[in-house]
Amino acid sequence: MKRETKIFEKKLVRTRNMIERKGLTMIKKALRDQYRSFVDKAKLYSPDRWIEATEFISEDPIKEYFEKFYQMTAPLALMTYKQMKGEKSETDDLWLGIFQEKMRMYVSKMAGEKITTITGTSKEKIKGIIRQVLEQAEIEGLGIEKITMRLVQEVGANLRGNAVARAMAIAHTEMIGASSYANKQAADSTGLNYKKFWSHSGLEGVRETHIYNQQYTNEVNGINPDELYPNGVMFPGDPNGDPGEVINCRCTELYEIV
Predict the structure, then answer these.
(1) Residue 22 to residues 62, 148, 199: CA-CA distances in angstroms?
(2) Is the pTM of this model over 0.90?
(3) Cα separation of 58 and 47, whole Å?
(4) Is 179 within 8 Å of 73 (Cβ atoms)?
């Protein structure tokens, strides 16, 4: 891999990290909105029917997060496009709009299952909390008012605790998947022949398979755009990849013109 490619990677990752921080704030809010809307509705039910009320947990906050967050990666695609073309384009707004539309179309196709999974996880976590509270309340002989208060408190406590870790995992994973796809679209849009390279993050705990991806692509001087990496994914964060290869990945895909 060329030195200038590694220099560009640093710029790309800095911008990506900035976007990810915004995305983390967005997914925290989305999960918070899910929980709060549930509690508002559940309060209308008796405690023994709170589990039924979990069916009212809406996918809308998570859907809105995906739609906005994926389009936020368009500037990364523009950076890649300009770097590969070796020019300071005077049509930045045009290409930015093109990449935003590509990301909008992409998320509309691939995000449905993820949105349902994230919402389903919220439901199961809340159901677990409700069961624990009701079991303990029966032992303590609590009345309906006190049970309801405890349910509200425990659901809120889970949101402040476990949901934060969930939000970070979601933001990390979706940032890599979205940015990798955006960059791939940028590379394809140049109309140039290119090779792709895997670059792992160098952070503690990086997967052995990701280290090998980098070693392999460097050894062969890049692989073809439509070729899978040795670990079976098309790009870092590939939603079609094995979850063990995708979740919390921090790697980057880079390109060099043939």
Answers:
(1) 15, 34, 24
(2) no
(3) 20
(4) yes
So what's the pLDDT on residue 226?
A: 95
Segment 204-232 mean pLDDT? 96
pLDDT single digits (tens) 147-162: 999 999 998 887 777 7
Residue ranges of domains in the chain:
3-191
**150-159 — which CB contacts under 8 Å span 24+ positions?**
151/42, 151/47, 151/50, 152/39, 152/43, 154/129, 155/35, 155/38, 155/39, 155/126, 155/129, 155/130, 156/35, 156/39, 158/35, 158/125, 158/126, 158/129, 159/31, 159/32, 159/35
The residues pairing with 257 across neighbouring beta strands, listed in sequence order, are 194
- Cα separation of 237 and 253, whole Å? 10
The DSSP line for 193-254 is -EEEEEE----TT--HHHHHHHHHHHHTT-B-TTPPPTTS-SSTT-TTS-HHHHTT---EEE
Contacts of residue 157, Cβ cutoff 8 Å, sequence gap at least 6: none
- Classified as helix, coil or strand, 91 is coil
